[in-house]
Backbone:
């Protein structure tokens, strides 16, 4: 690391270590809220829906929507339920551990199916190979891709 980067990191570490537990919880709550808002924002962009239109669909003011999207106000559960209904999205809540477990199961299942298909392919290949005539003459062949 460069000297300037080390200095900035030390300043950051000092700042973070001086925060109270309540400050840390407030930051984590803000990050959670922004994760929900990011999903809503993505859905709105995909559907070309404005914040004003979202406000109309869920029965709140455009200024409230703006405050939530800026991070000035945190969304409550009722707001999130209304927003997901209005945008046709569905939040699914999980832990990192559960997500990793699910991903590992999916990888194992994919691998099992892949091995099974390779066995089928190998047996098909052998039967096709037996049906093809063997060419012993040497020729120059061009391979088409």
Residues:
């Amino acid at each position: 690391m460069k000297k300037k980067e080390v200095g900035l990191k030390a300043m950051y570490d000092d700042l973070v270590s001086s925060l109270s537990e309540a400050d840390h919880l407030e930051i984590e709550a803000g990050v959670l809220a922004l994760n929900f808002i990011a999903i809503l924002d993505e859905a709105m962009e995909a559907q070309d829906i404005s914040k004003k239109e979202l406000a109309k669909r869920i029965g709140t003011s455009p200024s409230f929507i703006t405050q939530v999207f800026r991070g000035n106000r945190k969304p409550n559960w009722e707001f999130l339920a209304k927003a997901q209904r209005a945008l046709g999205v569905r939040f699914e809540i999980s832990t990192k551990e559960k997500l990793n477990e699910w991903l590992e199961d999916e990888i194992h299942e994919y691998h099992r199916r892949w091995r099974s298909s390779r066995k089928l392919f190998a047996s098909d290949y052998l039967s096709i190979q037996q049906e093809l005539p063997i060419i012993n003459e040497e020729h120059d062949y061009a391979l088409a891709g």
Residues 94-132 form one domain. The chain has two domains: 3-87, 94-132. The radius of gyration is 28 Å. The mean pLDDT is 84.
